[in-house]
Amino acid sequence: LGSGAYTHFTSPIRRYADVVVHRQLLAAIAQQKEQRAAVGEAFEQAAVERMAQHMNERNHAARRAQKDAMVLFQVYYFNTHECEADAVLYTVQEDRLLVHVPKFALKAKVLLRDRDGALLVGVDSVDVDCTAQTVVLGAPVNKKLCLFDHVTVRLSGRIRRTHRPEMHAEIVAFERPADAAREAPVQRSEIVHAVWDQPQAEK
């Protein structure tokens, strides 16, 4: 960088926010040493606020784009690699369960009812308690699920021309798969490469 010292904000190579901080510091130091002409004026507060707002918006947009891109890769992956995997319950909502699938490091929703109110989980009744974060399943399961309980889910990807591509998860067993402990995690890079290497006709 050619600088004798730099701040805890790290070197101003990666982020524009770091560049702004360094310019402000250099301007402040130059003002104290009466060398303002060498480095230029410091940014006014209003200008810094505008830049900070813009940088935050761009940062959030980049994170959303990264997340959406990963979800899209997952949908295409599970469209051709439908499978069953261990899942951990982490949120109970009125009409769905939210689960984390450790093997693929992803989150998925499991609908309990369809739009008409019909049950989708193979039981005759479902009693949901969002406050206690529990769900009591009727026959033939007759089981109470709590946070961090394990279930087995089937993962698939749905790609339709009239709808946004989406992940689909359904419970196939209300217990942990027997081989869950031996399952090797699948890295995100493996999912990306698997989709990227698919023949164009399959995408």
Keywords:
single chain; 203 residues; alpha+beta; 5-stranded antiparallel β-sheet; 3-stranded antiparallel β-sheet; 4 helices; 8 strands; 25% strand
How would you explain this protein's 3D organization?
It is a single chain. 33% of the residues lie in helices and 25% in strands. It is of the alpha+beta class and 203 residues long. Strand 2 (96-101) and strand 3 (106-111) form a beta hairpin. Helix 3 (45-80) crosses helix 4. The model has no long low-confidence stretch (mean pLDDT 85).
How would you briefly describe this protein structure?
With 203 residues, the chain is of the alpha+beta class.
Helix and strand arrangement:
Layout: H1 16-32, H2 36-39, H3 45-80, E1 83-92, E2 96-101, E3 106-111, E4 126-129, E5 134-137, E6 143-146, E7 150-158, E8 166-173, H4 188-196
Name the helix and strand elements from N-terminus to C-terminus, one letter apiece: HHHEEEEEEEEH
Give the mean pLDDT: 85
Give the strand line-up of the largest sheet: 3-2-1-7-8
- Secondary structural class: alpha+beta
The gyration radius over C-alpha positions equals 25 Å
